[in-house]
């Protein structure tokens, strides 16, 4: 059975928490209370279970911001963000009368001097330990992290945003804590953008903060660059991938099924409903999540057969059971039930997805793929994208699906005329909600074609004509090209400037396998080679997350880790885009092209 976060990045984070927060408290034999804020609750939930905490001497987990009964005989561990709200809540626990015997305080990252002084002035005699442990990101998967900040999208891309600079500062701090957790001091590069320079700005901030962090390292000596590279890209690099109907299992599930906080609700045979968590604790989910739905559907008969067979075996064992074998059977029962439950969940989810596909998605996929790729399944170039789009507009698809198709049409042309855009908006009946389309301009994605269109150059793509694909899944996210080019040292310096010097392995033409062994901070090194870390400003898609695993698998000596401000689904991105212009009719008055 897998213990706490037996999965890559999660393992490293959990180990770091044990080595700092828990190790400092372990010196005392007394059972303790753990008090968390909203973010640290999510952080710990992502990398450990309650049983893991109990084995470390923590008996109760409480919410910092809720009323709690005093337990004056117990010591409390506070794990929280260094914010004014958290500091005030902490002070209230010890004024006028202390709720706990003593406090061990651990901040996710650097605590500003004014807040630290305020806390010290009010509660110094109650604080036994006060440390910053440098983990202000969420390890969502083995190779995926998040800043857990969906609001950053609005702060960064809203025109004349008042808090853009502060948001970029915060994100940079979070990226630095990721690098520190991995014990990496990477060279930093960014995607050059002629329209917006948010990626460049973030790269500058991260590089400066990394330099300061490693100058002030506990070891009192300056750390040199490690065999790692950090690439910072903006969401505008690839507007297509978040909009397409992706047909791999995980991406498709989060696009088509209402899944919140990884919880999938499904029906049992008796009509009752049950909830299952789609996380890395579910081994079958990990096995299936990056498969194409056609392959997952092919697994279903096998899973049904296995459930039937295992139930038959259980029935036989029930009939033949001996007293001696009873204890062995009881030990196996939880694992048996877990396996049957997992299979039942994925039979239900796969059937749900196939139902959506056959009812609606299948009709959209051919047009979407032709528009995205610029050619049909036979390789013939799409000469008239409007002919490809028209069947989608004429079919009674829901409005969101039509908006997605219209956007793919516009992206394929690098922008369209005002007259054409007005007709499309009227056809989809979104005259009062045109921000769904027009607000992409705030990301630097061309929607209206202008004489200066030469400034927006389409990304050149890798040749994948030899790769086997499904006709309805021919598109490859641009980020995969970037990952592969980076691993092979093929990124053009004019497109990907160096913010700081990269280690020699990332500069020359040496193959990845020639890189030196990296000393990681985890108990066992995940990879024998280097790390490529990608950060996508403005949200990352499930299809892009999948690419990190695929490139790592293909290049065993380089581990790819991908992260972002938050995880996107097509619908969540469209809503975020729409909210960027709360006055879309005023912000964008489309004038008809003059003859």
Automatic annotation (TrEMBL):
Pfam families, per database record: Sec1
Keyword set, alphabetical order: Protein transport, Transport
UniProt cross-references to InterPro entries, sorted A to Z: Sec-1-like_dom1 (IPR043154), Sec-1-like_dom3a (IPR043127), Sec1-like (IPR001619), Sec1-like_dom2 (IPR027482), Sec1-like_sf (IPR036045)
GO biological process entries: protein transport; vesicle-mediated transport
Family as reported in the entry's similarity comment: Belongs to the STXBP/unc-18/SEC1 family.
Entry protein name: Syntaxin-binding protein 3-like
Organism field: Sinocyclocheilus anshuiensis
Gene: LOC107687296
């Amino acid at each position: 059975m897998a213990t706490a976060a037996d999965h890559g990045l999660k393992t490293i984070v959990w180990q770091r928490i044990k080595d700092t927060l828990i190790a400092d408290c372990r010196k005392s034999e007394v059972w303790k209370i753990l008090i968390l804020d909203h973010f640290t609750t999510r952080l710990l939930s992502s990398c450990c279970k309650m049983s893991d905490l109990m084995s470390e001497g923590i008996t109760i987990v409480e919410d910092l911001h809720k009323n709690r009964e005093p337990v004056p005989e117990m010591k409390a561990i506070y794990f929280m963000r260094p914010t004014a709200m958290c500091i005030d809540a902490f002070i209230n626990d010890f004024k006028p009368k202390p709720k706990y015997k003593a406090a061990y305080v651990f901040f996710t990252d650097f605590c500003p001097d004014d807040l630290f002084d305020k806390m010290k002035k009010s509660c110094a005699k109650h604080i036994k330990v006060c440390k910053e442990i440098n983990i202000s990101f969420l390890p969502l998967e083995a190779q995926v992290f998040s800043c857990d900040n969906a609001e950053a999208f609005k702060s960064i891309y809203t025109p004349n945003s008042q808090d853009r600079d502060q948001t970029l500062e915060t994100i940079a701090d979070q990226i630095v804590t990721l690098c520190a957790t991995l014990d990496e001091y990477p060279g930093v590069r960014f995607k050059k953008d002629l329209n917006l320079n948010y990626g460049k700005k973030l790269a500058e901030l991260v590089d400066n903060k990394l330099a300061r962090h490693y100058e002030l390292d506990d070891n009192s000596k300056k750390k040199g660059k490690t065999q790692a590279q950090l690439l910072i890209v903006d969401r505008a690099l690839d507007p297509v991938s978040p909009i397409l109907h992706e047909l791999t299992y995980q991406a498709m599930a989060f696009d088509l099924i209402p899944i919140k906080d990884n919880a999938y609700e499904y029906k049992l045979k008796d009509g009752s409903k049950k909830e299952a968590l789609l996380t890395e604790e579910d081994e079958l989910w990990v096995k299936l999540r990056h498969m194409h739905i056609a392959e997952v559907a092919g697994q279903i008969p096998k899973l049904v057969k296995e459930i039937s067979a295992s139930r038959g075996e259980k029935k036989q064992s029930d009939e033949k059971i001996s007293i001696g074998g009873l204890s062995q059977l009881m030990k196996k029962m939880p694992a048996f039930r877990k396996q049957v439950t997992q299979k039942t969940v994925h039979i239900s989810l796969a059937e749900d997805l196939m139902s959506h596909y056959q009812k609606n998605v299948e009709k959209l996929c051919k047009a979407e793929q032709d528009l995205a790729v610029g050619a049909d399944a036979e390789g013939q170039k799409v000469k008239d994208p409007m002919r490809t789009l028209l069947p989608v507009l004429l079919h009674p698809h829901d409005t969101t699906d039509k908006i997605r198709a219209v956007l793919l049409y516009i992206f394929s042309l690098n922008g369209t005329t005002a007259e054409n855009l007005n007709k499309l908006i009227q056809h989809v009946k979104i005259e009062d909600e045109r921000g769904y389309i027009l607000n992409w301009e705030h990301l630097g994605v061309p929607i209206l074609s202008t004489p200066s269109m030469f400034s927006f150059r389409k990304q050149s793509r890798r040749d994948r004509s030899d790769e086997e694909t499904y006709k309805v899944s021919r598109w490859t996210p641009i980020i995969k090209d970037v990952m592969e080019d980076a691993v092979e040292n093929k990124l053009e310096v004019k497109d990907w400037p160096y913010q700081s010097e990269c280690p020699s392995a990332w500069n020359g033409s040496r193959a990845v396998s020639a890189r030196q062994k990296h000393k990681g901070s985890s108990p066992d090194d995940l990879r024998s080679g280097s790390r490529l870390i990608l950060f996508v400003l403005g949200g990352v898609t499930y299809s892009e997350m999948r690419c990190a695993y695929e490139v790592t698998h293909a290049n065993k000596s380089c581990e790819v880790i991908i992260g972002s401000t938050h995880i996107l689904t097509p619908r969540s991105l469209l809503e975020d885009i729409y909210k960027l212009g709360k006055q879309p009719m005023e912000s964008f008055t489309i004038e008809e092209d003059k003859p």
